[in-house]
Amino acid sequence: MDHIMLIGVDDESYDVRLPGLHFICLSPDRLQQQADSLCGFISASTAEAEQIAAQIPWLPAVAQTAVGEHFCRRVLALSELNQLQAAGTGSGALTAFHRRYKLLLLAHSQPLYREIGPFVAGFSRWRDPQAFFVEYRKRLMALLAQPASRGDHTNALMHMQGYFRGKLDATQRQALTQQILDYREGRSSLAEPVALIQQYLALSPDEYLAQQRYLQPLPPALAQLSGGRP
Question: Is 75:213 a contact under the CB 8 Å cutoff?
Fold first, then answer.
């Protein structure tokens, strides 16, 4: 994507000169007016971030000290969704978008994941595509705002493991199972089973898994912005 629009902070100590990210400064009264074109809010204070989150619940908003991967993943999802909306694409493009995010959504909230799938499937029953988009955006961002627990990540990893059924030998299957168990028990980071899945995916390609945002790293600018924080 060309750029990701964020609202910057008024703080000279905070370096936002990152290629691929476009920061703008807005007064509070203009924020509501331009919210639909933005994908994140970084504030100088937690109180201000909470205020913005209350006013615009679907817009990711955090204090600059809390910027991490969770925030950046939400920003990326909203940026991609905004670009779909700007392009005027229909149900097919939105369904494809949702498909790419399914495993990431599963890792953040299983109950909300089970609710949003049937909602997307019911697109044709909506007379107003814009109203559907607004409701989908609200549901999607509320789901991604949920913290992903170790157990939820384990569930998503085991779900991915199923796609390799019949494609791995006994040693490979055991290695992946052990990596997932080690992560679940806190003996390793999430990066380790994800890296092994990516390795096996290169050996045994699967179109669905290859498209999953869960397995794809953040764009360089967002990775730098996250600073390696969760």
Answer: no
